């Protein structure tokens, strides 16, 4: 599907946001976290309006481009002309988080097999792996209320998330918040692997749980482990991966 480029139409700041968000969609597909066209990632534009970019509903994640992303406001009005609709459940979830979390530059939501499996377990995320220790210091839970189509759920979702960066949507899937798109993606990478490791470990013998001491020690370890670069350490390499394997996201 040929979509006219917006590169010369939008500001340089919005264009860079669009490129990174389109890359995030394609990376989610590359890592096997997508669910046909039914999950969503959003990125908020700077400014008091809390306007944000989200996927064109109906496109597979591996075909999303910077120009195809849809810009909407807090009432789901399109702020730039687009032939594509917006996933109503995606709007409900993402609009309510962007509304109350000033640090939520990006919100990423998945329905992966491992993520949904752990979300259906009563104990939720267990301290089984090094990856899990990065999650458990900032993890919240939200009970399942059906497909997220109703505004009445928004206050409960906001309250359950609070200031956490990882949200397990019970019987539903995973959600991460990041100040930037690379940060939200890296958070989801750790979250998804935590769930995959947990399901694999539970298929084996007796489990060896990590104690509270190492979990607390890893509360702020990411900056140290990435030489102070945080998610920006891996992001350029991920973009190079896309350039090799699925170019065109920046169109």
Instruction: State Rg.
Output: 18 Å
Strand content: 5-15%
Protein structure class: alpha+beta
Overall helicity: 25-40%
Count of β-strands: 7
Number of helices: 9
Average pLDDT, all residues: 94
CATH architecture: 3-Layer(aba) Sandwich
CATH superfamily: Class II aldolase/adducin N-terminal domain
**Low-confidence regions:** none
Measured distance between first and last alpha carbons: 12 Å
Q: Under the CATH scheme, which class? A: Alpha Beta
CATH topology: L-fuculose-1-phosphate Aldolase
Please describe what this structure looks like.
With 251 residues, the protein is an alpha+beta fold. The chain has a single domain, classed as Class II aldolase/adducin N-terminal domain (L-fuculose-1-phosphate Aldolase, 3-Layer(aba) Sandwich), CATH 3.40.225. It has helices spanning 12-30, 88-100, 113-119, 130-136, 154-161, 181-202, 212-217, 221-225, 235-245, and strands spanning 40-44, 52-54, 70-72, 106-110, 139-142, 166-169, 173-178. A seven-stranded mixed beta sheet has the order 3-2-1-4-7-6-5, with helices on both faces.
